Amino acid sequence: MTDLTPAELDRLTRLLTGAGETVVGPLTATLLTGGRSNLTYRLDDGVSAWALRRPPHGGVIESAHDVVREYRVVDALQGTPVPVARTVVCDPAGEALGAPCAVVAFVPGLTARSRADIDRWSDAEVARCADGLVGALAALHAVDPLTVGLGDYGRHEGYAARQVRRWSGQWTSMDADEPRADRLLAWLAERVPEQSGLAVVHGDYRVDNVLLDRDDPGHVLAIVDWELSTLGDPVADLATMCAYRHSALDLVLGIPAAWTSPRFPSGDDLRHAYAERTGRDLPAFDFYLALAYYKLAVIAQGIAFRHGLGVTVGDGYESVAASVPVLLEAGLDVAVPA
C-alpha cells in the first residue's frame, strides 16, 4: 500500500502548519515516479506544493533509507552555493506516518531520467547539462563541513575502509551468492588508499538525482536523493558519477537511462572536467571507480531483494537482478584490466 490515507494527510497538514507553512485546502498526495529506495510524494493544497520523503514499507536495509539524515544535510546546505530545495519540516519520530518523514518545498524542475527526456535537447544543451552537473558537484565539495554544522555528519578519516565494510556488510545481509563479488571485495580490501581530502559527499550523484531548469538544462535547481551522503573523500563522489555512465544503469532503472546516453561526456571526460574546474589531484581514482561499481552492484541487489519481498513500487524491476553481475564485472575490469 503506497497511498496516503485521509488520516495521514490530516496529520501531515498539522505537521506543515506547525512548521509555519500555509495550507489553504485539503492536501492531496501523488507518488512520484523514479527513486528505487525511499518513497517520494508530491503534496499539494491547490496553491502550494511540497515534496515528502519516507522509507519504503518493507525490506529496509540497515543504515539505508534514512530520510532524517537526508533532511539534515539539505538543511545544513541552505544558503550555500550548493543548489538544494528549501527545507520545511522533519518528523523523525514518525508521528504523522508511523515512520520518519521529511518535507521540503517542491521544486518544479525537470528530471532527466530516460533517453526520451533529453531527446529534444540540442548537443549544446547536453554539454551545458554535463557542465552544470560537474559545477554543482564541485560546489558541494567546496563546502567546509564544519562551517555549515556538519562536522559530525561522518568520521573525518578512514572513509575508504568504512565504505568497503559498509557495502560488503550490506551484501552479506542479503545472503547473495556471486563469486565475482568476493573477488572484487578482496581486491578492494587489499588496496584501501589514504584519504585525499574531506568533503560532504552525495554518494549517488548523476543527472536524474538533480532537478534542472526546464528552459536551461545547464542550470541545476536542486540536488536531491541524499540518503547515501556522508563525510568522505570527494574523489569517491566523482568516481560514482562516472561509474553510473555504464549501460548497466539501464537494467537498474528498467529504462534506457538518460545518464547512459552516448550524448553525454564519457567518464574520462567528466573526470578531466572536474579536475580542471576544481584544481584537485584525483589520487586512487581507479580504486574508487572499482568501489563505485561494487557499491552499485550492492544497491542493485538490494532493489532486487526488496522486489522479491513484494515491497517495491512501480514497474521496471524485472531487469535489476541482471545488472548485478554486469556491474561486478565492470569493477573487476578496473581492478584487473585485460
How would you describe this protein?
- By secondary structure, the protein is of the alpha+beta class.
- Helices cover 42% and strands 13% of the residues.
- The protein has helices spanning 6-18, 67-76, 115-118, 123-142, 159-173, 179-190, 234-243, 248-253, 267-278, 285-309, 320-335, and strands at 28-31, 39-44, 49-54, 87-91, 101-105, 199-201, 210-213, 216-223, 230-232.
- The chain is globular, with a radius of gyration of 19 Å.
- Residues 59-64 have low confidence and may be disordered.
Low-confidence stretches: 59-64
Main structural class: alpha+beta
Mean pLDDT: 92
> β content, as a range?
5-15%
Order of helices and strands: HEEEHEEHHHHEEEEHHHHH
CATH architecture of the largest domain: Alpha-Beta Complex
Total number of domains? 2
What is the subunit arrangement here?
single chain
Instruction: Report strand order across the widest sheet.
Output: 1-2-3-5-4
Radius of gyration, rounded?
19 Å
**How large is the count of helical segments?**
11
The coarse silhouette is globular
CATH class of the largest domain: Alpha Beta
| Residues in helix, % | 40-55%
Distance between the termini: 48 Å
List the SSEs and their pairings.
Elements (H helix, E strand, L loop, with lengths): L5 H13 L9 E4 L7 E6 L4 E6 L12 H10 L10 E5 L9 E5 L9 H4 L4 H20 L16 H15 L5 H12 L8 E3 L8 E4 L2 E8 L6 E3 L1 H10 L4 H6 L13 H12 L6 H25 L10 H16 L3
Helix pairs in contact: 4-9, 5-10, 6-10, 6-11, 7-9, 7-10, 10-11
